[in-house]
# Entry
Amino acid sequence: MFFTVPTLLTWARIVAIPLIVAVFYLPLQDGTRNLVATVMFVAFALTDWLDGYLARKLNQTSAFGAFLDPVADKFLVCASLLVLVHLHRVDVLIALVIIGREIAISSLREWMAQIGASRSVAVHMLGKLKTTLQLVAIPFLLFDGRLFGLIDTHLWGTWLIILATVLTIWSMVYYLQKALPEIRAKAR
# Structure
């Protein structure tokens, strides 16, 4: 099921990554660059919800889609964080924590699947909340200005990405605790 509508939307998120990065190399004014990158990020991030909805609605769920969807999310978030670090809008430590957690938990899930214990590290609401905060913080930080002349998106984005980082650590600890009994059992 490589070419269903939901899977094509997921692929679109992956294709979006170099496009969002490229915006910051175009000869545009900073405000225009920020706006274009923000709109692109939000549009592609919304495909995360839309592809899942359509997969269920059209009965086009697949193992490949279930694999590709979180990969696309992680690529989009990690690439955007690297852009924000480059623009000095996110501290490198925050990016390292978020990206490091994604690598660690993805590796943990792969290993747990190999030993037949993938249910112990199934997606939890804490992980979904972390992702939601990231997907709200990043466009605020990409925009980096005043929204409607009122909302300081840099300030709000900074606080939201810090909160997302706290949830990133918390969810990593949660998943490691859930996996620990299986890890101990296999170590014997």
Q: What stands out?
A: The longest strand covers residues 146-147.
